[in-house]
Amino acid sequence: MDSYFSILFTEVYKILFLLVPVLVSVAMIVWLDRRVWAFVQKRRGPNVVGPFGLFQSLADALKYIFKEIIIPASSNKLVFVLAPVVTMTLALISWAVIPFDEGFVLADINVGILYLFAVSSLGVYGIIMGGWASNSKYPFLGAIRSAAQMVSYEVSIGVIIINVLLCVGSLNLSDIVMAQQNLWFVIPLFPMFVIFFISALAETNRPPFDLPEAEAELVAGYQTEYSGMMYAMFWLGEYANILLMCAMGAVLFLGGWLSPIDIFPFNVIPGPFWLIFKILFLFILFALVKATVPRYRYDQLMKLGWKIFLPFSLFYVVLTSSFLLYFDLLPGK
Amino acid sequence: MIAHSVFFYIFSLIAIVSAVMVTVSKNTVHSVFFLILDFISISCLFIMIGAEFLGMIMLIVYVGAVAVLFLFVVMMLNVAEQKGQWFSSRWDGGTHIPVGLLVSLIIFFELIIVIGGWKYKPDLLNSLSINISKEVTNTRSIGNVLYTDYILLFQISGMILLVAMIGAIVLTYRERAGVKRQSYVKQISRERDEGVDLVEAERNKGVKIDA
User: Fold this and answer.
1) A227: Cβ–Cβ under 8 A, 6 or more apart, which residues?
2) Residue B93 per-residue DSSP state
3) Which chain A residue's Cα is nearest to B65?
4) What is the pTM (predicted TM-score) of this model?
5) CB neighbours of A132 closer than 8 A, spacing ≥ 6?
């Protein structure tokens, strides 16, 4: 029993060591997002609180904490309160399997990529619960839209993951990174990387696919009735999910913690920094897309997901597997 | 080992309680939420016995896709009001109790057969299960069996699912008249000649367009 508790405490320590930086970086990327967005539109963005406005997110968080939490009288109270908690928890638990360096990972499980995929497919519940429990039209419509959108784009993300797994021969995320030592998968699987990026935008409800919270039609979608800290939890969960999707893209396609070239100035920089650079690179792409692309119409969104991405990525699975089979490159015999 | 059994009992307790709550709870949407909780705790049990692949697939397929559709149907069709009437005879369609009893009896006998076989021949389980080696991950061992010995069954079940899917689409699809669809090709290939029409308008007469 003693050994059990000592294991428990070391694990809790490790989890805190992972979660606190993740939460802080979520706050920071919200600021980064707004800054990038502002620079594209020739505005200044948040620049008042702290140096370069770095503490803007903390100020916002403080504001949210002191705001009153309003629970609508006709809402389903338990589910209403649970929804942001579910969103936030699911966004955070997936970080357990992201490898930051060789052996530097909280849970090095064999089915790491399936775990990530499963947790991201659970993410839809936070939104449905929030939308249904609010007992109001706009949140409900937003939730239904968002659920349909996330389920559709998950399918193509799953097929894209199969493409990568064919080249790796393992579901372990560290193995996936190590398989990219000679060649990052972004080069042979470039079309898949593009589709993954766009699907990730749709999966995290980012513009141009932010239909669930399209303000012109649905006020704020599923979060219309939320206020104060509960709204902030939705918002944190959303950004933690975006960061996670960027990390997933970095691990699957951009070689995780590996340096781009294995020569002197690059391989001195430790692995975690490379992973962070890659996540930031992908995130800035996310922010640029948000600033430049107009919103999709709903039927266009569905058409893109089911009629273009799904057949194309299925075709690419056939292509990849036949290529690997023909040149006898199949891994892990 | 103690921690292991503690977690086992926690997850099984959650699974059983939520399974009971699925049938007991008044609100249909709550039932679906309990069903999801049940799926999750069952997949935790799968992971605990080392079947991590099955546990994750359970999460992805049942919780990530099937239960979402359940929720959709339940939320949209407003089954909530009907559920209370199912078990009372006041509903004019009669009660569902006889059918429910029949189904649960069948399931009960199936369980008796399974558990009875286990009791009757204690080494049955060991002789049936494939030897699990620690070196091979269970994703690989499932793949080794599924795509060699059982490839035919696997393909046939895939075909059945495909036929069922197409059947469902055919049954529910109906052609609606007057639906405007956007054609990108048509939009892009539009030229100035067909788009713009120069009309010599007569004074005080006006022009009739869309003729």
Assistant:
1) A67, A68, A69, A70
2) T
3) A151
4) 0.83
5) A76, A79, A139, A140, A143, B29, B71, B75
Looking at per-residue pLDDT, the higher value among B27 and A189 belongs to A189
Q: Exposed/middle/buried for A243, CB within 10 Å: 0-12, 13-18, 19+? A: buried
Is the Cβ pair A147, B72 closer than 8 Å?
yes
Give the torsion through C-alpha atoms of A98, A103, A106, A111, to 10 deg: 60
Q: Do B56 and A1 touch (CB under 8 A)?
A: no
Of A114, A124, A300, the CB nearest to B56: A114
Contact A145, A134 (CB under 8 A): no
Interval B96-136: pLDDT, tens: 678 888 998 999 988 888 777 766 666 655 655 555 566 67
Tokens of B210: 């869309």
Residue B23, φ and ψ in degrees, nearest 5? -85, -30
Contact of A331 with A167, CB cutoff 8 Å: yes
CA angle (A177, A183, A188) in 5-degree steps:
105
Q: Return d(Cα A324, Cα B156) in angstroms, integer.
A: 26
Question: Which residue in the set A110, A132, A140 is minimally distant from B52, CB to CB?
Answer: A110
CA-to-CA distance for A95 and A84, rounded, in angstroms? 18
Size of interface A-B (CB pairs under 8 A): 69
HSE-CB at A309 with a 13 A cutoff on CA atoms is 26
Q: Shortest CA distance to B40 belongs to which of B18, B20, B63?
A: B63
Mean pLDDT score of chain B, rounded to an integer? 80
Chain B residues with CB under 8 Å of A121 CB are: 59-60, 63-65
Q: Say if the Cβ atoms of A122 and B53 lie within 8 Å.
A: no
The secondary structure of A21-68, three-state, reads HHHHHHHHHHHHHHHHHHHHCCCCCCCCCCHHHCCHHHHHHHHHHHCC
